[in-house]
Design a protein that fits this description.
By secondary structure, this protein is of the alpha+beta class. It folds into two domains: 18-172 and 232-321, BirA Bifunctional Protein, domain 2; 330-420, Anticodon-binding domain (Rossmann fold). Helix content is 38%, strand content 20%. Bound molecules: zinc ion (ZN) (2 copies). One zinc ion (ZN) is lined by residues 171-172, 174-175, 231-232, 234-235.
Length: 421
């Protein structure tokens, strides 16, 4: 019964209730299967890191670092932050464990909560969950193609329909410098119409203006020069190579020439996946190349690319009926209080066979227990009466079609095992 409790979960950080978790677990299990097929291994980095891990990588003048990070001082006075995304920590781990020495493309995936102090709204929470993948140690466009193909398989496996993969290239540092100058001179006249954030951005990192959601800013950049026109030969060749491989793989994609990402570390090929059930601004997944990040974080030179899928957003795109509901297992209902303990011990035997099974623990009447089984949508109940007990049998009732049979324990196990365990 809902009451007005003294303590409530923080805004934007809701409890994950069993019904949601069942879906999330299904989604994670499915994803793990796809990652395995592509040769990824799972990694779990801690929720908290030194703040610098994020500021150095995501960028000082990004929205995330400027206004969304949960930062605190630990008891020793060191600044630490809850992770707002997964990549920075993974690169920190890649460097710390010396994986560059493997001279290989390291493929890692992760699943877990991230934290950003945003204004909570549909599909946007302060504690949200991501499933992500990183490929570190390779620069060939075939690496990008494999990553995007992995994401495409993952979304298909999860039954997401009607999604669009959008790609672009942000070029290397050199290209970016050229482009920033072009953009700055184009926008010079328009700065007065920018939102206050962008007035500041125009000075610090003009690229940020491109993904501002303010209507005036959007208008100002509408016909701005595009990044692709500033790519060097090498970046341009990589971008073309990727497009050709994706075509060969029959992975549908569209080019989005104004696609920038909200984090500073991206270089070269970037992408986003959108879905009609989310607003125009929101992507279910996003990622791209970040070839300079490892070095930026005082590690070796290592080409890298990755993506993250927003789990809560993904759930908004899925059809409820495509997510299988877990069967609740058997309820053993004794006829009369004298058999209560027999039912309880029988449940133990089923559990030894790893068949999910429960008995009523509250003292409900026989009728009450039947009602409970119905309400919980249990497919099977086992009724244990004196007669059955005497013959070493029990009554198995299929609640869906009402069919019932008197069977021995072994026969029941044989009958339900495949469906329930
Ligand atoms: Zn370049
Ligand atoms: Zn703006």
């Amino acid at each position: 019964m809902a009451c007005d409790p003294k303590y409530k979960a923080l805004r934007g950080m809701p409890d994950l209730l069993p019904e949601t978790l069942e879906k999330m677990n299904w989604l994670e299990d499915r994803s793990r299967k796809i990652f395995r097929v592509f040769g990824y291994e799972e990694i779990r980095t801690p929720m908290l890191e030194e703040t610098e891990v994020f500021t150095r990588s995501i960028g000082e003048d990004t929205d995330i670092v400027e206004k969304e990070m949960y930062t605190l001082l630990d008891r020793g006075g060191k600044s630490i932050s809850l992770r707002p995304e997964g990549t920075a920590s993974i690169i920190r781990a890649y460097i710390e464990h010396g994986w560059a020495n493997l001279q290989d493309v390291v493929k890692l995936f992760y699943v877990g909560p991230m934290f950003r102090g945003e204004r909570p709204q549909k599909g946007r929470l302060r504690q949200f969950h991501q499933i992500g993948a990183e490929m570190i140690g390779g620069k060939d466009p075939v690496v990008d193609a494999e990553l995007i193909s992995n994401l495409n398989e993952l979304l298909s496996e999860l039954g997401v329909k009607g999604f669009t993969i959008l790609i672009n290239s942000l070029g290397c540092q050199k290209d970016r410098k050229v482009y920033k100058e072009k953009l700055a001179s184009y926008l010079k006249e328009k700065i007065s119409s920018f939102c206050p954030d962008c007035v500041r951005r125009a000075d610090k990192n003009i690229l940020r203006v491109l993904d501002c959601k303010n209507e005036n800013c959007k208008k100002a950049v509408k016909d701005a020069p595009i990044m692709l026109d500033s790519l060097c030969d090498d970046c341009s060749a990589r971008y073309t190579a990727l497009k050709n491989i994706l075509k060969d793989l029959k992975i549908p994609f569209s080019e989005k020439k104004d696609l920038v990402r909200g984090l500073d570390y991206y270089t070269g090929i970037v992408f986003e996946v959108t879905h009609p059930s989310l607003g125009a601004q929101d992507a279910i997944a996003a990622g791209g190349r970040y070839d300079d990040l490892c070095k930026e974080m005082s590690g070796p030179e290592a080409g890298a690319t990755g993506y993250a899928v927003g789990v809560e957003r993904l759930l908004l795109c899925l059809d409820e009926k495509d997510i299988p509901k877990k069967n609740k297992g058997i309820l053993i209902v004794p006829v009369g209080d004298d058999l209560k303990l027999d039912a309880f011990y029988l449940a133990g035997q089923f559990r030894k066979e790893r068949i999910p099974c429960e008995t009523d623990l509250t003292g409900r009447s026989f009728k009450g227990q039947m009602r409970k089984a119905n309400k919980e949508n249990r497919k099977y109940i086992v009724i244990l009466g004196e007669e059955e007990k005497k013959n070493g049998k029990m009554l198995l009732k299929n609640m869906t079609d009402g069919a019932q049979e008197t069977l021995s324990f072994d026969e029941v196990v044989k009958k339900v095992r495949e469906e329930l365990s």
